What we know:
Structural class of chain B: alpha/beta
Shape of chain A: globular
Shape of chain B: globular
Low-confidence stretches of chain B: none
Helix content of chain A: 25-40%
CATH architecture of chain B: 3-Layer(aba) Sandwich
Oligomer: heterodimer
Strand order of the largest sheet of chain A: 5-4-3-6-19
Amino acid sequence: MKYTDRQVKTPLCCISTTSSLVNKTGSWRFASPVFIHRASPCNEQCPAGEDIAGYMYLAAQGRFEDAWRLIMKENPFPAVMGRVCYHSCETRCNRAEHDDAVSINMVERFIGDYGLAHSIEIELTRPEIDKRVAIVGAGPAGLTAAYYLRLMGYGVTVFDSNELPGGLMRYGIPPYRLPKEILDGEISRLSNMGIDFNMGVKVGEGLAWKKINSGFDAVFAAIGAYQEADLEIKGMDKRGVVNALGFLREVNPGKYPSTGKKVTVIGGGNSAIDCARVSRRLGADVTLVYRRSQSEMPAHTEEVEMAREEGVEFLFLAGPGEIYGQEDVSGIRLVKMSLGTVDNSGRRRPEPTGETFDLDCQTVILAIGESLKIEDLPSSLICDGNLVKVDDFGRTNKARFFAGGDIINIPRTVTHAIGSGRRAAAAIDGFLKGVERDKDGLNHTSELADYNSLNSFYFDHRSRTKAHIVLADKRVSSFKEVVSSPSEEEAVYEAGRCFNCGSCTECGNCYIFCPDFSIMKDPDGYGYIVDLDYCKGCGICVQECPRGAMKMEFME
Amino acid sequence: MYSLNQRFDNMEIPEDEHMTAGHVACAGCGASLSMRLALKGLGKPTALVVPACCWGIIPGAWPQTAMEVPFFNTAFMTTGAVISGLKAAYRRRGMDDVCVVGWAGDGGTYDIGIQALSGAAERNEDVIYVCYDNEAYMNTGVQRSGGTPLGAWTSTTPAKAPKSEPKKDMDEIMIAHRIPYIATATAAYPHDLIAKFKKARSMRGMRYIHILSACPPGWKTPENMSIEIMRLAVLSNIFPLYEVENSEVFRQTVIPDEVEPVNNYLRSQGRFKHLTQEDIQVYQREVTTRFERLKERFDRIAV
């Protein structure tokens, strides 16, 4: 419009006739808001890489099957996990800075049980691949690798020397922590998927590694660490001296080992605690002897507390000196210890003081650590100390040979074993397809949703649901589960306490608070989009996002 | 399902928009967001009357407009008179369902427009008068107004000699008019703001709504902090959210879980940067006394 035209056309009373939409205010912007997915701290912490923020969101809405399927993407044992995982995720929970950490473990347990109760099955949707993988060892690592490889379409055969699959989940974890029917339920889902189980076969003895190597396209070894550490003291040959794994293995419904009236457990790890608690249930008076003090105990604090409630006596700063008795054990001589300088484990080294004292007992259980029996593996593998040397994905020095679980350098928990199995499955898939698989198979993204990235104003204060723990004197009378399952209301409530850090839950804050009409619902799917034509880049949406699912990106 | 761990159930927010993008408010403007949310609460048919103020220019330069409801620009001191006349004209033409809304800044309400507003209130005209209060003449370059708080920097009250008088208590002036409805609101609590506009629309007679509206350039605050700062004003009782019916029933609509010290509010803004710790203590006493006086009335009604 020329100036003269404008003079002519301007009416006496100015009335606007065009929309301001011609005015693209986006040109004012020097930073743009973007929607991102940040990793929640719990997700980063989880050794199996579960998308906790995601399944909490689904569970809070009562969408338990969806939540279950989301867990199954990272972990094929939700019901087992909800019982035996040491839930280190909860130590990183952002909610702890607000009021109290979310009881993630409780929700996972409910979802896992929901999957079992409703017999949800996993459908195989990928086309079959004409390649076979051998899994040696049917523990958590092996079964996890088997599950994911089978999902991808590979033929999978599992070999194990035991009668039943499950590894330490079956033969190491006592039934008051993990009932056998829960484990059986989750494993039977795996066998229904067409995974072959070859039980009672010890590879390396009954069946040569060479045969496995030539018969399969890839091998995953997760044979576990069963070799008891040697204790060079007198009296080890007496009847009544047992090692922890051998003892726990005997604990099966209807068939319990006998211990005598008094039991001494040597060691401070989780299996020592398991042995002590099992012995209490068998009616014995139990003394747990540990050579350092309580703060150095590798066992999980919750477990130690429960053992104490159940009447296990703790004797710290004492080590075994000699086991005495005729043929049977009648007592143990202990040496008092004092703590010296810090050793390479970061703890203070116990040093014998020379002072001794005796303890009457009929059984001595040694739980002083287990290691891999290297002779059980092919001799061409490169090992690092007592562990097989692998990269982050479980690749060994041999091209077609992968390893995971307790025989590689990871903490010895079921959750870590599951994580190692899943990463190895990704690496085996990459190897068999001839592609590099160097991206972490877990859910970690580069950015972390820490507490500062949240806007905690939008979260009210709600107290954490307490786990239902059976009273201690009732607990020791049977092998029934110590912690009972949460109700549906409790699971929904607890899942609703989750901040869903780093994930958009479509709460709508960005849309409500935009002064420039520039946030709109994504017409093609989930979440919101930014209209960059008009966004002035004020950043209110990012500031007011409760979950840290947005950030400002500055232009060059 | 959207209220997962969430204070606001955002599903309650009406979806309809009655203005468009492309308006020329500054980035992070509290006034443009307040209008957007107010129109969601008011709905159509609504006619706006706006005197000289930021909102005189926000809809855009002629011939453009961001508004999708009638929007009438008028002279600074006339809002109260023009809404009275416009409502009379609509009624005369049989369009009594049109909600006539005056929308003026703090300058146009506290100082220049108070006479026309007081007249309209005294006559109990059937209109809504909204004061969006950004606490100075922001449109002309941050000059002090009757709404500027004690101790604030403006271009006419520089940091060496900040405003020495407290903010005029406009809400008390309106309460003294004994009109049907008075409310305070802010865009940091969108559900509260929308509910108050819905309620105002459903009533007849003179209704007055006082909106606290952050101004990043005038308050010297980062653009992204607008909502946070308005929220702090509520949480520290500097701007309590309440409503008054017939100057008799007082109701606090947002009660903070925990009252914040004024320190956080003041320190978040450049216009209060020069305040010393002693000044802030004086400020805190002022705010507490004022809120206690108000609270007595909330409490009395609650019995």
